[in-house]
């Protein structure tokens, strides 16, 4: 029973930390161009030898 009293606040804290990291990445523009990364993999910018 005492382990539940310790683990529940730790789990809630980790969940809030993950949510804060998600909103930080969202505000920082990490998810602004999702289609660009998918298209860049198809472009061949290397010059053949």
TrEMBL record:
Keywords: Membrane, Transmembrane, Transmembrane helix. The chain crosses the membrane at residues 6-26. The keyword Transmembrane applies. InterPro entries: Cyt_oxidase_maturation_cbb3. It holds the Pfam family FixS. It comes from the Bacteria. This is Cytochrome oxidase maturation protein Cbb3. It comes from Novosphingobium sediminis.
